[in-house]
Design brief:
homodimer, alpha/beta, 6-stranded mixed sheet, about 45% helix, elongated, DNA-binding
DNA sequence: CTGAAAGCGCTAACAT
DNA sequence: ATGTTAGCGCTTTCAG
């Protein structure tokens, strides 16, 4: 029973400390430390008794004191954008990858009122052993400055690795994959909904153009700029529909744009994929919903984070920063099919 | 310039400490502490000099040491479900509310592989002054056990406040609002898509039934059970459409179900709101997207978190736990309109 | 296998 | 306004 500890907490007394446990168990303080950390150096009987006493007292080790005393904090800080599905996936993978290497994760969120710099600073104060920044909105200079203070890994931004490491997927290769898939289905009038001014959008657009040329479809290259939200894409799609001939397939720069397109298509009676094939980009959670089932380009988030953590550990152990570029893959679902009528 | 500090970090030396700053500035350590905390007790000239030296050295205060020394950690722990839009909103509000009271936020995520209990334990180790749990999947016993160790506030779950405080919106009142809105538009055949086995779904269903009775529409009460995903709702909607007469309006137990309905409606050529009015529940981010524009019940997340933080502070200052029930509100957007043909 | 002593970086309490 | 001393809870030596 947690009688004693509970009573203490309820009456506003301090939490039990290691010394309390040692006293109650009739052993020295360091011995309790040994038992709590699960390292060797205590007999089995002592270990059992100490653990039982600790449990009875409701003892919880103080992470602040532990990390202060240890040279390394065994903490990897992750800066992510709150509410972003792609970041949510990455954070989940971060927990898994860090745990495999004996590290804990310290989270710091970027929100409408909390900048990347603020988020990173709070982790710096916690003395994380390394920082992993998910697509941070910081320029190279700010990132370098940060990286001089702590090993830093930038995820999913195309940046020259300098004092920090970079891990990202090859965005050009991604849209090339998308176009190649549509070409193999028999499409020729393939348009691209391009993200205007969005990071990574340039590479995705270049990959689209390259793949069209490679397929001998130079004449059909058709780039429609759009904004970052579903609503922007819906508007662009609506304007596309005022044309004489619609494309038979659409490659969008991200899933949100693709979903905006799907929505408008449904409302206007355009059958996807019979009348129009759509390929998104990101393989975000909504894309995987069965009733959306969007064919899309996946960045392989587990591998992205596995590499990010590996790069962090490399830097912690003194190795120089470097860049890792991963290959995206095609997830074929239900929004692509051969065109009903060819050109 | 951060020359010295940077060089240190890059060559793997330790970070500068307060003692380093004191030495370089030619003052005592506590004086540096006074300056860094911005409290009174240092002359303006000293203050300026210390701050400049600290900046040159690239000094960042060590949060672990500070929190260890202080009796209170000035930290409020928040346990949230990663990737849940409602939780994302709440966390964002938590940052704002905590900052107003001089508290920082320590985040701990619940994921597919990380339970509420694990998430809470890691915050316990950080010695947070209080914990705020967002719709935790823990039973009353587990919550009580936790609350004996640290002031605890449970958000958005209907639970008898015991050793912990509870803040939630009135779910019955929410669906009553939804039905009343539809009735005022002239609807009578109003069905409810009910969440099977989901927390809060019972109250929402009860509120629907109550409001129907209050409007004298007992005969039209029509409760269709469904699952928790958009796809579940889409299936339920499809089966609803095999009936002779469709309802003219639908109240769903959450936004995800509503969005599943909207999707199927668009695909089957049912015009929302002309043929069918739809009211969701939660006012989640997707509901607010302009191309969805879902009429829905809002829980007022800023107020929910404002109350949660207030309840946490109350408990920290020794007051007993209690319950706060907030009133939800109706957000009228574009998925509701008068019925085209009445019964 | 166990215990005594020192110290991580900081702040609170007391001096001056 | 500034300096001195002590100690937060833990882990790490180093002696037994």
């Amino acid at each position: 029973m947690a009688g004693d500890g509970a009573a203490r907490a309820r009456t506003g007394q301090r939490n039990p400390t290691m010394a309390d446990v040692a006293r109650a168990a009739g052993v020295s303080r360091p011995l309790v430390s040994i038992v709590m950390r699960g390292v060797s150096g205590a007999s089995e009987s002592t270990r059992r008794r100490v653990l039982q006493v600790a449990d009875e007292l409701g003892y919880v080790p103080d992470a602040r004191a532990r990390k202060l005393r240890q040279s390394r904090s065994a903490l990897i800080g992750v800066v992510f954008r709150l509410g972003d599905p792609f970041h949510s996936d990455l954070v989940e993978d971060a927990y898994a990858s860090c745990a495999r290497h004996g590290y804990e994760v310290a989270l710091s969120a970027v929100t409408g009122t909390r900048s990347d710099a603020e988020a990173a600073l709070s982790l710096l104060k916690e003395r994380c052993d390394a920082l992993i920044l998910l697509a941070p909105a910081l320029d190279a200079g700010e990132l370098s400055h940060l990286a001089e203070q702590v090993p830093t890994v930038v995820v999913s931004r195309k940046l020259e690795p300098a004092s920090f490491s970079v891990v990202r997927a090859d965005d050009r290769a991604g849209t090339e994959l998308a176009v190649a898939h549509l070409v193999s289905l028999g499409h020729r009038r393939i348009a691209h909904l391009a993200g205007a001014g969005v990071v990574a959008a340039d590479d995705r657009e270049a990959g689209y153009a390259q793949a069209m040329r490679d397929a001998g479809l130079d004449a059909w290259i058709d780039i429609v700029p759009t904004g970052i939200t579903e609503a922007d894409a819906a508007r662009s799609m609506a304007s596309l529909m005022t044309r004489d001939r619609l494309p038979t397939a659409l490659v969008t720069f991200n899933d949100r744009a693709a979903i905006g397109v799907l929505d408008i298509a449904a409302r206007r009676g355009i059958d996807v994929p019979a009348d129009l094939s759509v390929v998104g980009y990101d393989d975000s959670r909504p894309a995987r919903l069965p009733y959306i089932a969007l064919t899309t380009i996946a960045q392989n988030t587990p591998e992205l984070m596995r590499e990010a953590v590996a790069l962090a550990l490399e830097q912690i152990s003194g190795q120089p920063p470097r860049e890792v570029v991963l290959h995206p893959s095609l997830e074929i679902r239900e929004t692509t099919a051969p065109p009903q009528v060819d050109v």
